[in-house]
Amino acid sequence: MEITYGFSPFRKEYHKMVKDGLITSCPFCAESDMESQAIRSQNGEPVENEFSRWVINKYPYSDGHTLVVPKRHISSIHDMSRDEIISHHEMIRFAADTLQKLYPDAGIETFLQYGKGSRMSLPHLHTHVVLALPTDTYRGMQKLGYFEAFEEDEEKIIMLPVKVTLVREKLIEALAKVIDLSELAKYTTAQ
Predict the structure, then answer these.
(1) DSSP-derived pairing of the beta strands 2-5 and 156-159
(2) Distance between CA 172 and CA 191 in Å, rounded?
């Protein structure tokens, strides 16, 4: 039996707010929330394009946990226009490449959840852009709290204290040092 410990105090805070009904409006539509979570260049400009923005996850599961969020309130990929889909994907590419500048040995994992059967906690579409570090003890959907056994008779117990350190303000500061907004244009397919 494999036992892995991972713990994010941020998620505990978030789940309590959800349970207590303290989240009553969409934080991704609230400009003040998006302002505080915006990933910015060194000169303070937010990283965004016409339809999407790149933000830190305020309640991260792991180091370097970021989100690409459509600016318009969208709850399903079927609600996105072609331009919004392209814009969203371009921002994901930029976010992934920038995270790898900060963490050159890391890989990137992206996650998109939506619909009733998913574990999407907010009804505003968003893509998780997460580091895959060589030292990670868990991978893929496990980073978002999904754990599975690989063999039918295998038992796997996972408790969410892999220390989460580069998050929130620290992550915003670290990313600002490697962001070059002039490079954002090369991710745009429209000419």
Answers:
(1) parallel
(2) 30
Q: Which two tokens stand for residue 73?
A: 């309130």
pTM of this structure: 0.77
Residues in the chain: 191
- What are the C-alpha distances in Å from 114 to residues 25, 96, 117, 130, 158? 17, 21, 8, 17, 24
Spatial CB neighbours of 17, under 8 Å, sequence gap ≥ 6: 23
**pLDDT tens per residue, range 10-65:** 656 666 766 777 666 788 898 988 999 999 999 999 999 999 999 998 877 778 88
Separation CA 51–CA 125 (nearest Å): 12
Name all domains of the chain by residue range, CATH numbers in brackets. 2-183 (3.30.428.10)
Structure tokens at 169: 């303000």
From 27-41, 42-56, 106-120, 129-143, the region with the lowest mean pLDDT: 129-143
The 3 state secondary structure assigned to 80-137 is: CCHHHHHHHHHHHHHHHHHHHHHCCCCEEEEEECCCCCCCCCCCCCCEEEEEECCCCC
Determine the 3-state secondary structure of 166 from DSSP.
coil
